[in-house]
Structure formats: structure tokens, C-alpha cells
Specification:
The protein has 275 residues and is an alpha/beta fold. It has a single domain, classed as Alpha-Beta Barrel (TIM Barrel), CATH 3.20.20.100. The chain has ten helices and ten strands. Strands 3-4-5-6-7-8-9-10 form an eight-stranded parallel β-sheet. A two-stranded antiparallel ribbon has the order 1-2. The longest helix has 15 residues. The N and C termini lie far apart (40 Å). Belongs to the aldo/keto reductase family. This is Aldo/keto reductase. GO terms for molecular function: oxidoreductase activity, acting on the CH-OH group of donors, NAD or NADP as acceptor.
């Protein structure tokens, strides 16, 4: 098993790679293009972008230049908060697709649970899904309360919930709820901001497997059945991050990493985020 062949199966039967490349803060143009091309060369088949990253055009260009068949790739983008609402979300989707140069998207996410708007936004995603323009739809940064509210009116259950997840932020209740509902959890910022690399527990486990701290953390994501999308524009790190399918963590090592939890966020809290 490797980055090209390791897939989770979503609740609608669509296969989603366990590992993807995140391109948050990668500059549009040469920087994001090269990162995506190098990732695809390294075996990545999933690329995660968003309208608010302002690099969809570069991602689309890289997809064309990669030489890999479109059906082998899994492309995700997200509708930003300013575009939430039914009609505006449909317009935002068309804009994203024009920038990406794609006919069909693999996964479209509601980026944040904007109060008073996320339900109408979800109806737009359901419309796109029913029309065959998107293979899977989901949400990002939704807590249990948001999911419960959404499911009151949703015709289609989200296939994915992309959340901040790393050993300092376990989100156990949210992950348990998603599992019960058949919603695949996906991690953003799985490597924190790199400060966790110096943690003695992480270093000890990395040394035991002759792996880097980043590889151990990404493997920990997989052990928790969480799709992971580490961001990098550096070729060596992109390659390093893909080499997580040739070892496993022991239950004791997983427990030790879990015990690092501090409920510490590096990004905004969905409950208090100023939309």
C-alpha cells in the first residue's frame, strides 16, 4: 500500500485517498503548480484547495501538466463564507470550476458553518451532487451542534467533515459522532505548526521506527481512520510526508500520542469564529 493505492470509502461508495496535499497559503502560479506536480509525481492522488486560498487556477494548471489521468485524481475545493447561501454558493462553485478547469469535482465542502446560511449552502451542494457535478459533498469545521442542526433538514448526509486534528487537539466527541453518522473525518493542520516535532514522546516514537516526527504524526492520523492533508511546497517534505504506509504504530504508541491532548487549537474555534 502507498499514497496512490490507500483509500477510505465514503458513505456513498466514493473512494477518497487517505493522504492528500493541502495547498493553504501556497502562492498561485509557479509555487502551487510545482508543489502539486511534485506531489503527484510522489504518488499523491488527492489535492485540497479552497476558493479563499486564491490558488485554484494554479492547481488546475498543475493537474493538466501532471500527465496523470483525471479519473485517478481526487480534487477538493470549498465554498467560502462570503459566498454562502443557495444561489451565491452555486455561483461560487461555477467560478471555482472555471479556475480549476474541471467538468466534475470530487469533493466540495462548506468551509465554515456560517450561522443562518450554512443550511441554504448545503442545499446548493445537494443540488450540485444530484446534478452529477460533484462526486461527494461535505463540510469543514462543523462541530456536533452544527452537524445536528444540518441533519434536521439535509436530504443528503455529508460524506466528509474536515476539522483541525492533531495530538494536541483530539476532538474525540466530534470524531465519535462523525463515525456514528458515517461521516469521514479529514484533518487539516495535522502537523500543528511543527512545534510538536520537538515533543519528547513524538521524538521517541519517531526514533523507534526510524521515521521523522512528521511521518509519525501522519501515520497516527491514518491509525485513527482520519484522512490527512499536510501542506507543503517543499519537494523533500512532500516526498517525506508520503512515506507513511510502510509502518504501523503500536496501540501503546497511539495511546501515548493521544495523551498529549490539550484541546489546543492553532486555527479558529468554530463556536466563536467571527464569520
Amino acid at each position: 500500500m502507498n499514497a496512490s493505492t490507500a483509500y477510505a470509502t465514503l458513505n456513498n461508495g466514493v473512494k477518497m485517498p487517505w493522504l492528500g496535499l493541502g495547498v493553504y497559503k501556497a502562492e498561485d502560479g509557479a509555487e502551487v503548480e510545482q508543489a502539486v506536480i511534485k506531489a503527484i509525481e510522489a504518488g499523491y492522488r488527492s489535492i485540497d484547495t479552497a476558493a479563499v486560498y486564491y490558488n485554484e487556477e494554479g492547481v488546475g494548471s498543475a493537474i493538466k501538466k501532471s500527465g496523470v489521468a483525471r479519473e485517478e485524481l481526487f480534487i477538493t475545493t470549498k465554498v467560502w463564507n462570503d459566498d454562502q447561501g443557495y444561489e451565491s454558493a452555486l455561483r461560487a462553485f461555477d467560478q471555482s470550476m472555471n479556475k480549476l478547469g474541471l467538468d466534475v469535482l470530487d469533493l466540495y465542502l462548506v468551509h465554515w458553518p456560517v450561522e443562518g446560511k450554512f443550511k441554504d449552502t448545503w442545499k446548493a451542494l445537494e443540488t450540485l451532487y444530484k446534478a452529477g457535478k460533484v462526486r461527494a459533498i461535505g463540510v469543514s469545521n462543523f462541530n456536533v451542534t452544527h452537524l445536528e442542526e444540518l441533519l434536521k433538514t439535509a436530504e443528503i448526509k455529508p460524506m466528509v467533515n474536515q476539522i483541525e486534528f492533531h495530538p494536541y487537539l483530539l476532538q474525540e466527541d466530534l470524531r465519535k459522532y462523525c463515525k456514528e453518522q458515517g461521516i469521514q473525518v479529514e484533518a487539516w493542520r495535522p502537523l500543528t505548526k511543527g512545534d510538536i516535532f520537538s515533543n519528547p514522546t513524538v521524538q521517541e516514537i519517531a526514533n523507534a521506527h526510524n521515521k521523522t516526527p512528521a511521518q509519525v504524526l501522519l501515520r497516527w492520523n491514518i491509525e485513527h481512520e482520519v484522512v490527512t492533508i499536510p501542506k507543503s511546497v517543499t519537494e523533500s517534505r512532500i516526498i517525506e510526508n508520503s512515506q507513511i504506509f510502510d509502518f504501523e504504530l503500536t496501540q501503546e504508541e497511539i495511546r501515548k500520542l493521544d495523551e498529549l491532548n490539550e484541546d489546543k487549537r492553532y486555527g479558529p474555534d468554530p463556536e466563536t469564529f467571527d464569520f
